[in-house]
Amino acid sequence: MKLFKTLFEKNYFDFHFFGVAFILIIYLFLFIISKNFPYFWDNILQTSIEGHKFYLTNFQFTFQKEIPQLPHLISTGYHPPMLGLLTALLWKIMGYKLWVSHALALVSSVILLYNLNLLLKHFIENKWIVWVLLIIMLEPTILTQFVIASPDFFILTAFVVSLRAIIEKKYWILSIALVFLFGMSMRGVFLGIVLFIAHLLYHFWYLKNKFSWVALFKIGFAYIPIFALLLIYYAVYFVKNGWFFTGDSSTSHYSTPQNFKFIVKHFLDFGVRSVENGRIVIWILGLMLLYKSFKNRLKFNELQTFIGTVLLLHFLIYFVLIFLIQVPFSGRYFMPHYILLIILVFSKLIMSYADSKKYKLIFLILFMELTGHFWLYPEPISKAWDSTLAHLPYYQLREETFQFLEREKIEFSDVSADFCISGNQKYADLKSHNQMISNDLDNSYYLYSNISNHVDEILMEIENKQHWKPIKRFYQFPVEIIVYERIK
Questions:
Q1: 18-37 pLDDT, tens per residue?
Q2: DSSP-derived 3-state class of residue 1
Q3: What Rg value do the Cα atoms of the chain yield, rounded?
Q4: Distances, alpha carbon 477 to alpha carbons 32, 402, 451, 474, 480, in Å
């Protein structure tokens, strides 16, 4: 009850109640329509396959990368397995159902909203908090990550809880939040390390507290449990499996860039994913306000400096990765950036503009976020389908495609596809059957979908009319799936 009392507090601005209620209604509506959606995008691997590894073995093969008794269950290794472990546990308790993951995301959304509300009170005048909540919670990538129950949505929630706990010096809450932050994926590990460094700077430098070992231990105490757990996990993993990346094709994303041209392309990808889906307005405002602050010698207070430090350090991690690995960037990687930037922008914007101009800027930001669901690019430019609700037709089209294959008595073992569609369909839809679709072009049928972001070579091959012919197209704007048959 205290949670909802805080969220719906009316004493500072009546509109706050309606704004929070509106956000909750949207998330509840999205939960209702998505609760039986199959796992999508990277979530098939990071949640479902990881979850099956624990669920099907009764938690016996925690550290094995490959399980001989269960083919195709290959863990990522470098991602800590908490979400897979939690998913398997919930399946055991609540049933082997798709809605379990979506229900977990719904609970996470309430925790995120509650903690955002409390966090923003440290930075923004009360009457503007509801508007900032709307801007953050209705951002396309965040909404879409909620719909697919992505690990990154849980990471974002744990991150916001951690920020609030650091500022309010609630170290027990911080310790619990850090377990979820570090435990979900390597991106959470990066973010947690950034928080630890920024936390020390904030306490001893920005707040000018005198250094003492007692104070250091008090801060470090919140981080010790998860550091110890991660140390054990990685130590046992290395002993059993060796280093994460073995150089095979499945880990080619983690090899060094091939040439300078690739680095330039990777840099552009970094920039686009940072500002796409309507985020560009916040970035422009941020740069304008930063320039204005330096020009007029406006100082940042301790909290603003802390938030800015977290933003800068996290931004630098991904910037450095441009030059080290080939992994493609996704808009979900930058959700923490976006929230931090919004907080900084509005903490300065409120002091810099008249109310009438503030409202105009807020509506511009919300409008641009709404258009963000339709930032779709022509092929062969990759689209971040896990960052837009425009992908929603995919689930129905996938079902219609599979029904077509069954009607035509086309064996799944004779069908190929690319990312998101290939693999054992059991791990996407949790059905009892094993329907394996290969990820090559060696079979008699090929499922093309713009969801898969095909590489140029595959696009050129299936468009070759001497090799392939389309026999069925399923389409609902902006998603399509085409069944191709090999010409014999």
A1: 999 999 999 999 999 999 99
A2: coil
A3: 23
A4: 22, 19, 12, 10, 7
